[in-house]
């Protein structure tokens, strides 16, 4: 009767947003991300003054910018992580469409900043790299498609997602940006693996990769030289790799001391692709191991939390995001220690770079949103006696 | 897998009879199946996620461990990492038959620059241009002050130059250790050795690869670490080679020839004791191959091995030897030499008119084309081909040099009877002087085919027999008579009983269409001592002209023969041969009591 008289009381979802978020979010992972960001600022203080000096800015120009973009990135991360998976999905699909169109228009409107590859939009005060924003959106869309295909009478989502992947990979390869293309392909592969790829197909694909690699090695001189250079135990001291390896050696366990490093003066990419070398030289193995541990914590914790996830879409999207995050870090550090052939890839949250920071913030926000604690229907399992 | 039907008939009929909606049963079953599917997918995903997590953990651990090992290793300048041992004696020496060095290695340094480490690039560039006059100062300044991070300045520098560069005091100028190939004898045996150059090149070492000659032919062997730097022993004798080149050079200049070649072959082992081609070059500073002009005029061209020439009358001895082998003639058989010998629209003439007929020996001694052609007619094309083939005239020589393949003899496209006749006196078939030496060696060693080699042999090495010993013996007598009473009278060297045959062939025009009237290839193929030959010497002069008389004389008897005689007089003692008295009777020697 009361309702009939006074009108309906708006139904609140039990708990307010913030406390609920705090209770359910993966606080360990979030702390790791914040620490990584802090280290990025710390290393930026060391690594970017040479670049700033070269470009005629104040010594800490790039640190300020990093802090500004980092603030934006963290805000984006917090906001995203507070959203419900449904909302994340909706926004991500919209974002994906926007980024896709932006990527497609790059050849017309983009600039190459004299680096030979058209990857950026110049906005005057900053530049935007659409492929960075495309990645998290792509993961969500592909996960959505794959999850839909698991429904009875669902669409052939795996095929759609595969076609989409190939399209994006081709677009990225045209820029050319093989690093991002590989990353997208890898993200899709991981999701497909978790969504239940047949074992035979996986083995076949592994064989195909080996074959293609051999073919490329035998037929492309450029490719062969890269691999030979990687396999050659002699390091040419004039290459970036030579400098990076030497910097790690110089650093030893505890580093040469803050600001004492030399490698940042000779490496043009010291603040992005080879920031780990700067970290190793100035702060030593201790800090590097910390950084590795932080990345490993984020990835492995996310995996473990996703194992309990019952919703296929959330599981897949979370897996894709976590793996892309982890692999990007792994490739960056693997290159610096010569475990992998040279490939330009930023270290998420630590390397300098506006687009990659903000896009990384959004991606990690999504990951946190997906790994939040949710009721997973354990009661139903108990009732059916199937609790393991 | 046992699946429940979505619409189990029994339940539906039952429900219908109770008046319930049977669709509810279908929906219920659909829901159950969906849940089962999800559970299955979830358990599978759980396993795979676990695998992924473990893989990531392992990968991060590997990176961490690798970081740890790298950090624990001693920091060092990367360029100091290459140990000295890896570039010392990486290429084996080449020595002559008595162990004297022909090619060895020398440690030196390369000079390169890191412009971004330079303090005063312009001053450094100016100082470098002062030390190395061949460097372009403006170019260096541009390289040092531009964006380049690495600049090669010099590939090889001497210790004095290195000290001078040190004294510039520029930290951006750096040295890389190098091992360079050194040919201490300069241009001696240059064509045999060929040369070496840097192959793949890094800062702290560079590969030395052979570019020509034995250096290239034995490249893998010389670089093979399993041989532990054992030197490559050639059959060349350095002193003989030097004497040969010296005499040949003098002869070439005296006879106004544009080129010359000489081969000295051991008739029993097939060893090439010396082989020379002029003009030559210094393998320490091997010239670039010519981009224009005739490649055979380049100093790089090995006339003794690559130059295929019509070798003229030197071939006649093969025709008479074969005729004797076949029993068609003996040295005293009279052959019709009335000329000119007409064959179709061609006619064969002699240098002089030798009358109605000559004995076979006289045909060789006087070098009668007509007589030889008549003998060739008796032999016939097939047998001639087979005989010349057995002497190795159809294939490039198997000498251990990459250039040997270039010396492929030119054969007539169709071996007609006319070809048979002209080839018998050395026209219509082009071969290298080395081919000729191998052919003469078969006569000299008593009838065994000889394969020339550049590697030192331990004992005689005979190929299959190509003629009877008596035939070889008689042929040698004829060759001896060519020197004592025939066209090669300047070839007599006291105490060494030289036998041989001259050959003067008109040079064919490069663009076809006949022969030059005033350009010849003069060849003297000789063996000594003629009664028991140890060596065969072939001397070839390209376009010689002896101008001391009223008319230029171009025949081999006036040009190649004196050069060969001088050469034999110089090298026979070097080969350890003492002058000896010739056994038996030789016309022209009369002992008189005073």
TrEMBL record, chain A:
GO molecular function (one): lipid-linked peptidoglycan transporter activity
Pathway annotation: Cell wall biogenesis; peptidoglycan biosynthesis
Topology of the protein relative to the lipid bilayer: Multi-pass membrane protein
GO CC annotation terms, alphabetical: cell division site; plasma membrane
Enzyme class per UniProt: transferase
Keywords assigned by UniProt, alphabetized: Cell cycle, Cell division, Cell membrane, Cell shape, Cell wall biogenesis/degradation, Glycosyltransferase, Membrane, Peptidoglycan synthesis, Transferase, Transmembrane, Transmembrane helix
A Pfam family it matches: FTSW_RODA_SPOVE
Compartment list: Cell membrane
Swiss-Prot/TrEMBL catalytic activity: [GlcNAc-(1->4)-Mur2Ac(oyl-L-Ala-gamma-D-Glu-L-Lys-D-Ala-D-Ala)](n)-di-trans,octa-cis-undecaprenyl diphosphate + beta-D-GlcNAc-(1->4)-Mur2Ac(oyl-L-Ala-gamma-D-Glu-L-Lys-D-Ala-D-Ala)-di-trans,octa-cis-undecaprenyl diphosphate = [GlcNAc-(1->4)-Mur2Ac(oyl-L-Ala-gamma-D-Glu-L-Lys-D-Ala-D-Ala)](n+1)-di-trans,octa-cis-undecaprenyl diphosphate + di-trans,octa-cis-undecaprenyl diphosphate + H(+)
Any GO BP annotation: peptidoglycan biosynthetic process
Membrane spanning stretches: 28-47, 67-84, 91-110, 159-178, 190-217, 283-304, 316-337, 349-370
Domain of life, per lineage: Bacteria
Enzyme Commission code: 2.4.99.28
Family: Belongs to the SEDS family. FtsW subfamily.
Name of the protein: Probable peptidoglycan glycosyltransferase FtsW
TrEMBL record, chain B:
GO molecular function per UniProt: carboxypeptidase activity; penicillin binding
Region called Disordered, residue ranges: 278-300
GO biological process: cell division; cell wall organization
Family matches, as InterPro entries: Beta-lactam/transpept, Beta-lactam/transpept-like, PBP_dimer, PBP_dimer_sf, PCN-bd_Tpept
Main location: membrane
Domain named Penicillin-binding protein dimerisation: residues: 87-223
Residues annotated as domain Penicillin-binding protein transpeptidase: 261-549
Residue ranges of the TM segments: 49-69
Keywords: Carboxypeptidase, Cell cycle, Cell division, Hydrolase, Membrane, Protease, Transmembrane, Transmembrane helix
Subcellular location: Membrane
GO cellular component: plasma membrane
Name of this protein: Cell division protein FtsI (Penicillin-binding protein 3)
Lineage of the organism: Bacteria, Pseudomonadati, Pseudomonadota, Alphaproteobacteria, Rhodobacterales
